[in-house]
Design brief:
This protein is an alpha/beta fold. It is about 35% helix and about 20% strand. It has helices spanning about 25-35, 50-60, 70-75, 90-100, 105-110, 130-140, 155-160, 175-180, 205-215, 230-240, 290-305, 310-315, 345-350, 375-380, 395-400, 410-420, 445-460; strands at about 15-20, 40-45, 65, 80-85, 105, 120-125, 145-150, 170, 190, 225-230, 245-250, 255-260, 265-270, 275-280, 325-330, 335-340, 360-365, 385-390, 405-410, 430. A hairpin with a 2-residue loop joins strand 15 and strand 16 (about 335-340).
């Protein structure tokens, strides 16, 4: 095994380690801790099929695990607590752990202690998964031994268990993961953007931004940071952080970094050398915000050693991810877009601004604490009508109904039928809910799939353009 990137395991052999949560990250952390000699007790308060199956699988591997309850006595007798990002610090079990003064860390922190791979860490409010997947694609397209992990789906602990580990791992970092890290330090860190989000969990915007700022917590002179020059909040947050700073922008600049040239080409300027990647027209991603994502991901890949020509080729072949401005098809002259991953107001705003044609915009789900009125300028410019659904529909109606034609529907099927009736040839139906999915669906993926199925069922037998 090579030299570890982290500081080594956070526990000694035989130490009692409690793992809270039996989702993919919790189960992976339990396996890693067990493999490194820790005495694991893993638990989840829910007893759903996913948690029950995870507990059964862990027990079959000799790891003590249970679903449906937390044994608080055992947890409080632990030497270390590892928490899954989905467990709110306000829950009873987290409050008890905090009151007891037990050290509590995130799964990525446990994984980092056993990691040999070099790390590109990517965070921001919107576009994290796309940028992470794109950066991983660029590294692989350039011939580097790389993978993606973190909030994108594969827990970082799984990477730490691999033999051998990849040379590079691109890690998507949510604010919930960053909140419980102490030693995590990426070789290359990327801050995409900042906007209000998760205000249903955070008491203030400052607290949310504070967790994002933890990306820089362990910066050294050797750190390299990729900064979105077009986002003033990002630039301000990165000021004074140790390490070298590189900047990406949709307009040309003279700093080290990447930019979109006046000729329409994406380019990098590093060590005073200018290299072009590819033209904006060759990108398969939709929307100007994805040009920014391409610049940021490409710049991180360049700092990891990828040649400019390989970056250009990789950018031109990346097709995007499901549920992120994903085209479903064109039916009867109307284009249908699935952006179910648009789970906050700022993401929905970006989706609405991505198209030049008139739009039917679909909003709704579980409210996350942000005012929908901030969508008004974009909606008034782009939307022919708005359809609201889910728990947040009454609030959306109160905040937007006096300004725009707004229709309230009770389910995805009704939403799709209403959108079909409202849309005219040449319009775009944009499903970008600006809310979480948890009122009706377990996650944004299931919500997006339900929307796509409803669209296809309604147009069954109608050829797509």
């Amino acid at each position: 095994m090579g030299a570890r990137r982290g500081t080594g395991p956070l526990f000694e052999t035989g130490d009692r380690v409690a793992v809270l949560g039996l989702g993919v990250s919790g189960a992976a952390a339990a396996r890693l801790i067990h493999a490194r000699g820790g005495a694991v007790y893993a638990s989840d308060s829910f007893d759903g099929p996913v948690q029950a199956a995870a507990a059964e699988a862990l027990r079959a591997e000799g790891i003590d695990a249970e679903a449906g309850r937390h044994d608080l006595d055992r947890i409080l007798a632990s030497d270390l607590v590892v928490t899954s990002p989905g467990i709110d610090p306000a829950t009873d079990v987290r409050q008890a752990v905090t009151a007891a003064g037990l050290p509590t860390v995130a799964e990525i922190e446990v994984a980092f202690g056993s990691l040999e791979s070099r790390v590109i860490g990517i965070t921001g409010t919107n576009g994290k998964t796309t940028a992470t997947a794109l950066c991983g694609h660029l590294l692989e397209a350039a011939g580097l031994d790389a993978t993606t992990a973190g909030n994108i789906g594969c827990p970082l602990s799984e990477v730490a268990l691999q033999e051998p580990q990849p040379d590079w791992v691109v890690v998507e970092l949510s604010s919930f993961q960053l909140a419980d890290q102490e030693t995590f330090r990426p070789d290359i860190g990327v801050l995409l953007n900042l906007a209000p989000d998760h205000l249903d969990r955070y008491a203030s915007l400052e607290l949310y931004y504070g967790d994002k700022r933890r990306l820089f917590a362990n910066a050294t002179a050797d750190s390299r940071w990729v900064i979105n020059l077009d986002d003033g909040e990002v630039v301000e947050m990165a000021k004074g952080v140790a390490g070298r700073h590189f900047f990406a922008s949709l307009t040309p600049h003279d700093l080290e970094g990447a930019f979109l040239g006046e000729d329409g080409w994406l380019a990098q300027r590093l060590d005073r050398q200018l290299d072009r990647w590819t033209s904006e027209g060759h990108l398969q991603l939709v929307g100007r915000h994805n040009v920014t994502n391409a610049l940021l991901a490409g710049l991180a890949a360049a700092l990891a050693g990828c040649e400019a020509s390989r970056i250009g080729a990789g950018l031109a072949t990346f097709q995007g991810l499901p549920h992120r401005l994903q085209p479903i098809g064109v039916f009867e002259g109307v284009r249908w877009i699935n952006d179910s991953k648009g789970t906050n107001v700022s993401a929905a705003r970006v989706a609405i601004q991505a198209f030049q044609q008139p739009e039917i915009v679909v909003l709704g789900g579980r409210h996350k604490g942000e005012p929908y009125t901030s969508l008004l300028p974009a909606l008034e410019e782009h939307a022919r009508a708005v359809i609201a659904f889910g728990e947040a529909a009454p609030l959306i109606l109160r905040e937007l109904g006096d300004h725009l034609p707004l229709h309230v529907e009770s389910g995805i099927g009704a939403v799709v039928r209403c959108a079909k009736e409202l849309a005219r040839e040449g319009d775009v139906v944009v499903f970008s809910p600006a809310c979480s999915s948890f009122d009706m669906f377990p996650n944004y993926k299931e919500r997006g799939l339900a929307f796509e199925r409803a669209v296809r069922e309604l147009h069954e037998g109608v050829p797509a353009a």
